[in-house]
């Protein structure tokens, strides 16, 4: 059978430089899923854009063919003119992008943005278009399609927006769907929902899917065929089964090794002692009040965090995991004094073992200054957390200048030391952030946090914007620094595999409460709480023989009222945390 | 509904601001010691014209200039009765101009509307020129279109307005037979409005509009271009391309909509800067706007005339910002729904 799309010897470059992708070949049949795997900069996105003809204007196609059999006749997409190509886009081939929030126009209603595809490619009445869009919304799982149609993107969550994107890509029933990292920005249960949805729709319409991803776990669960790319060249290609069970190319092996997995071991680790604390958070609650649309209706209260206790032992790493909206980031902000908790919460910071505590929730001006020197934060997105208009040296020295630490030479010396520590050359001091890759930038933002020689580092999803191999390096680095500088980490993440690697203790949060807390080995080998179990089940693993049931795990843990007897609760009456074994706390009835 | 409530709320705050501005204006005009009449009395005394002094003293009392400044202010706006009962801005009495020895209303009357006309024409010119040029410069960035429009724009920014005015007068008159100076042919001055008068005004408007608007248009164009360039690289533009939206529609529907925000928000700032900028131009071009009168009034501490003109400019500014705020609400759902949170 003729392949639906066949990419032959595709070579694309920018300007006169070496081609960015070279001699790329792959093909895809109807109804098939092809996974393009590689790290950022490997050329996987560029190849996909070439198929859709939306390359950046500075890119030049040096050679190659993209033979498409989407219509009645076969045609080379690189040879047809722009007007004809526009008919292919959105109709025969469509695309889903990585960041749903940024990929939809903020000023247009979601429904209209989806309807536009049909307006462009079908000549049917507006009424009929709306009907089709609403039907599609229903199919992708909007509980209230009519409301979704009228919503603006900023009124929806990331998972819902990605559904809208899928609806947009699928509305014209394309022959080929290109999904560019469709679930990278989502948490595991939402990821399972979105992947399950793509699977179902694929079965319904028999379309082909090109899935661009760096997550081998996703590949194992979705792909029929696999193409591994690195630096613009194909390293290995074949059926997913063959490659996943026996990777031949060293690069593929490297990718496999870098992918963090949840370890399964029955080693019993002793509980982390809570005698020498650096950070003690007791009974933390945070309520946000949102004013209602009309003055006569009462304001609604959103309880982001409800009575959380977290104890971070000096020199250890406490990880807080949970889905988006679980309150983990709010906890991190409260720990740093960036946000004030509700009345009755206590946040105490002990700078030395026997020092008097600093009350972080009621800092005086001078206390705040002192506290900031000892507690710093590493942010999620290294692209937006460094000022693009400041040289590295200015970014690094700014905190020292603010706190008036050291002389000019001392400051510079410290900057060089810190750069050495994070594995960067001191010669980069005069450069600007845009000159660095994502991994290097994350090193820089760690360096920035270390400039004050803090004792506590709060890391808010420090690796979730990075490739697996880079993630691996950054985690190595964090571990190294922790040991070298005697740091304590409060580590926020949604990735259980990452957490299992770096944490000494893990707290699982759901809707503002800690539902289970234990050392990682105990937690992953012997999870008790239904929510923890659901999270672990939803984590896709790069093992083709152990696929996860996407539609099952997509349900998550369900509502608390549906849980097993000893975990079940109604309304707000959650049971207290019980210590089931030393160091293993579970929120359940005894 | 949200919009109406917002507009009403904005109108209220606008009136409050106007009140505050009027107090500030009155205070600042009265900051230098003395007033128009006491200065005149000094001068009359010095030159020995004592009989005129009595008249000036009478006027001082007549216009309550001998009262404390606070009282003067309230009499001016018409909140408390003056020597002739309630007769201030609120009652529609704009006061007396000592410099021109006429009621303020008579002096500014026609000039006021001509000022509004000239500046509205200039604002319109700014938007009509900046919008297409900015969008094209961004869409075709780093091509000759971009460079040419930037070059012309910088020329417009860098050339002093009065010089531009003189050059345009010369060539406009020579090649297109455009009239020089004034805002209408002399025979229509003081005449009631007619079709011919309108035609004459429009013809006379061409060069002033161009002169006053050029620098604003150049600046606005560059701002729009920069905004558009920022937006063009956003992922949602890519999404639209992947849908198969034709290029012109894509440009207008997606990035332009977002880039319009600062463009619209500028309406409020544009008016006052143009009016103050056009004072000099009006003097050079001999336009019968309130610019020259304002200049004269400020120099001689003619407080009622100066106060009224300044207040009028403030009012224009406030109306401008209100229009831009309401437009922003209409254009951007994020602002619309942000207000309801």
Largest interface: A-B, 33 and 23 residues
CATH class of the largest domain in chain A: Alpha Beta
CATH architecture of the largest domain in chain A: 3-Layer(aba) Sandwich
Give start-end ranges of low-pLDDT stretches of chain B.
Answer: none
Order of helices and strands of chain B: HHHHEEHHHHHHHHHHH
> Which oligomeric form is depicted?
heterodimer
CATH topology of the largest domain in chain A: Rossmann fold
For the largest beta sheet of chain B, what order do the strands appear in spatially?
Answer: 1-2
Name the CATH superfamily classification of the domain at 107-338 in chain B. MetI-like
What's the β-strand tally of chain A? 22
| Straight-line distance between termini of chain A | 62 Å
Choose one word for the global shape of chain A. globular
Estimated radius of gyration of chain A: 26 Å
Question: What would your notes on this structure say?
Answer:
The complex is a heterodimer of chains A (about 600) and B (about 350). Chain A is α/β, with parallel strands linked by helices. Chain A is about 35% helix and about 25% strand. In chain A, the strands form 4 sheets. Chain A has an 8-stranded mixed β-sheet with strand order 16-17-18-13-19-20-22-21, with helices on both faces. Chain A has a 6-stranded mixed β-sheet with strand order 6-7-8-3-9-10, sandwiched between helices. The radius of gyration of chain A is 26 Å and the shape is globular. Chain A starts with a strand and ends with a strand. Chain B is mainly alpha-helical and about 350 residues long. Chain B has a domain at about 105-340: MetI-like (MetI-like fold, Orthogonal Bundle). Helix content of chain B is about 75%, strand content about 0%. Chain B has 15 helices and 2 strands. The longest helix of chain B is centred in the middle third of the chain and has 38 residues, at about 195-230. Chain B is globular and about 85 Å long. Classes of the chains: A alpha/beta (about 600), B mainly alpha (about 350). At the A-B interface, helix 2 and helix 4 of A face helix 9 and helix 15 of B.
